[in-house]
Design brief:
three-stranded mixed β-sheet, 10 helices
Length: 313
Amino acid sequence: MGGGNHSVVSEIVLVGLTGSLEMQLVLFLVFSLLYVTGMLGNFLIVLTVISDSHLYSSMYFQLANLSFIDMWVSSIAAPKMISDLFKERKVISFQGCIAQMFFIHVIGGAEMVLLISMAFDRYVAICRPLHYVNIMDFRTCIVLLVAAWTIGIIHSLIQLVFVVNLPFCGPNEVDSFYCDLPRFIRLACTDTYRLKLMVTANSGFISLGTFFILIISYLFILVTIWKRSSGDLYKALSTLSAHITVVVLFFGPCIFVYLWPFPTVPVDKFLAIFYVIITPFLNPAIYTFRNKEMKVAMRRLFSQVLRFRSTFK
């Protein structure tokens, strides 16, 4: 895989989702609605947490950062996917494809670490409530946030440092609507077996291992609460169910795409759509509809906006 990049490929052709004009129209309307709604919902969460002093805690700090990451997840691939629906020839430059893969894995790695820190936050809040303020202070939140982005960048660079040196001299068509490593490295005109193993280990097994660690940690929290007081189990389960749902939505597609040995295009495309469009749309609904403090804070924010507008009438 060494020897430098001898590519003659200057652009990557994306097959897209469908060739049917009717389906393109339906997908354009549905995806545009989901994308805009998801962006507005996540932006509202970030704005609410920043503007409301009642939400100045570790949990809401991390929730705002999750929403910020989800805005990036959508924006990396969704706008181009939507704009490409009515294009007969869907292309992206070679450099643009590399950049898209870089940011996808940076964001994915950062979100993975953020979900772990959110699980730790819930553990401290539920199992060590008297020490919560001291343990999960502002300094700890900043350290966890810096660690998330640092690990995300390292996770992405470890893979792309090998990919950019591959020779691409033949086919340039990817049966997807965005660039990602598993399909991209198949275009290389050299043996990529070792690189595929590295990508599987880096993205697949790490995702699977992290997923099980998170699920086990949530089960540990529930067992601890059940031993302490079975009456509090339902309340804890209600609190953790939102986190567990987000973890499943995030890790499910990642594990399937990077570990499933028999890739199928329709399933891969559906999971990719789920990851870049549906999950960022669902996350705000999952957290805001189940969180009383967030709903109250949003009502306060809307009231402030209305009062501000009324003073200028």
